[in-house]
Amino acid sequence: MKRNLTLFFLLFTNMLLAQDSVFVRRMVDTLTSSYFWGRGYTNDGMGKAGRFIAGQFKDYGLQPMDGREYEQPFTFSANTFPGMMDLSINGTALVPGRDFIIGPASRGVKGEGTLVQKDSIHFIDLKNRVVVELKDKLTWSVEQGAADFTLVQVDKKALKGIPVTININEENKLVEGFKANNICGVVKGTVKPDSVVIFTAHYDHLGGMGNKTYFPGANDNASGVSLLLSLARYYALHPQRYSMAFICFSGEEAGLLGSKFFTENPLVPLQSIRFLINLDLLGTGEEGIMVVNATVYPKEYGILKQLNEQNHYLVKVASRGKAANSDHFFFTEKGVPAFFIYTMGGIRAYHDVFDISKTLPLNEYNHVFKLLVGFNAALMK
């Protein structure tokens, strides 16, 4: 009888994980769709994504962290590119995102000019204050201000010969009070509701570059948000002794702004946080996971490693020290114990138009999910 119950439990658990695998794929597909327009600064992409996540929290039965609203609003400046994005070099029209990107601090410009070579990769149109830079890979980002010139980064493979002439029509708009929201929900603990374990993930990405091109951000960070939502669903159905909280930050790509704002305006006392796990870049895993802050919190890192070795989840749980590379950082600076976990191996698409759901394997999702659930259970003993 005991053996039959064990088999039933294993089958039931595997069925739930299979359902969660379908769920997380659907979430990545949804968050990378054109409707959310790169979850960024034009077409209300970030706003739509935030409202969608808040709706998910409500559907799962999470309570707003502040008792009233899921949204924690704040503002910051962002240089955006909502309109025209046309470029021709040597008479050849180039495709935004694929063949070229505009420097994120660039001003808008419209005109024709001649390019003067400065070195092997830089060419300048003095009349229109445009710098053309040749690159092996195009990687975009976000800036909070606008410069007095325009930087155009061009994939070397898109050109035949050196750049000589340029025709450009590119619009920018500096938004000085861009409105953003952190999305915050909680499942109250059954025994120690004032002690909190928090999962975090940033839901913003780079948004759109012009009115025809957007950056989907599948691995960065639809993958982390989707895993967070899966965990939120799980813990809403299985309340724990401690409270389980979930925060989706915005403004990460502009400089960890959402997490910085939260640590300066916390909706729960920072000293009540038992541990925080930040999820970013969770779409692969062929080479295991990296744990940032592992050397800072060796006891908790040891729990992760032991669980992984006992259950043969991942090929490696690698250790890294303190780093200011994601939303865990400002919590660590305030004395909150935290890990930043990301997967390693697989696709190399990052901050480009090729970071899409279709090619994101999500192959170690189930193992990471199990590892995190086991880690939380060990923390609460």
UniProtKB/TrEMBL annotation:
SUPFAM superfamilies: Zn-dependent exopeptidases (SSF53187). One of its GO terms (molecular function) is metalloexopeptidase activity. Residues 1-18 form the signal peptide. It comes from the Bacteria. Transmembrane segments: none annotated. Gene3D superfamilies: Zn peptidases (3.40.630.10). This is M28 family peptidase. It comes from Mucilaginibacter ginsenosidivorans.
